Amino acid sequence: MSNPSTFTEVAALIAEPARAAILLALFDGRALPAGELAFAASITPQTASTHLAKLVAGGLLACETQGRHRYYRLAGAHVAQAIEYLSAIAPLSAIVLKPQSREAQGLRFARCCYNHLAGQLGVAVSQALEKNGYLRAIDDKHFEVLPAGEIWLRTLGIDSRTLKPARQCLDWTERTHHVAGSLGVQLLSAFCDAGWLRRSKDSRAVLVTPKGWAQFKAQLGLDPRDLENLEHKPALAG
After folding, report:
1. Where are the transmembrane segments (predicted)?
2. 2 in a domain, yes or no?
């Protein structure tokens, strides 16, 4: 199959559990080798190679070669967005994670969604930006950055005037929107650079540092006690 042109062909590619697990493993925007993706999907390297070839041929993954190694990543933000919306109907995490596992809880609280912040924290930050008059939903797909938001974003080193309109992304665990698009990417990067957040090396989970909680409360009025199901919050980053 090469570049499937029908809905059913694309749906069939995503529907297979091992391929769905591979797509989820790449959901944070990283490029990973076949061995790591085989482990994530609980399949043999040989089986992973077959699935990866189908996903590349189907236009869902891209392959990058560095020396003798091949690295796979999502073909683009449009793929991540499609999976995110499908996951809002039936969460794909159930394929690779037990519903109440520590990892599943951590991913629900805060995770990377194609290089922007998702989960309970991502939604809470988005709602706080609206509450503080920094963003305003202009339709069911986009946010508008307001003048006060432009000023606040500049304190993080972000010039919103150079970015495309902020996109809304439907969060598949929270069933509501978080900030995505170029602004979402810049926000996650700024939060990490400022030491508020730390990305996990082993998964899509994001950890909040003590400095991060202090700054989220001081600047956005976010208190960890206000977040839903806080008892599932993972340990603070050191």
Report:
1. none
2. no
Backbone angles phi and psi of 112, in degrees to 5: -85, 135
Q: pLDDT for 209-229, tens place per residue?
A: 999 999 999 999 998 777 754
What residues make up the domain containing 54?
Answer: 7-95
- Domain limit, last residue, from 95, 120, 155: 95
Contacts of 211 (CB under 8 A, 6+ apart): 194, 195, 196
- Which string of DSSP letters, residue by residue, matches 89-153? HS-GGGGTS-TTSHHHHHHHHSEEETTEEEHHHHHHHHHHHHHTTSEEE-SSSEEEE-HHHHHHH
**Are both 120 and 191 inside the same structural domain?**
yes
Same domain, 145 and 201: yes
Quickly list DSSP for 60-104.
Answer: SEEEEEETTEEEEEES-HHHHHHHHHHHHHS-GGGGTS-TTSHHH
Q: How many domains does the chain have?
A: 2
In this structure, the answer to whether residues 177 and 145 fall within a common structural domain is yes
CB distance 177 to 168 below 8 Å: yes
Strand order in the sheet with 177-180: 135-137, 142-145, 166-170, 177-180
Q: In this structure, is residue 1 part of a structural domain?
A: no
pTM for the whole structure: 0.65
Instruction: Give the whole-angstrom CA distance, residue 96 versus residue 25.
Output: 10
The per-residue pLDDT for 125 is: 95
pLDDT tens profile 182-198: 999 999 999 999 999 99
Tens of pLDDT along 90-136? 655 444 433 445 666 777 788 888 788 988 999 999 999 999 999 99
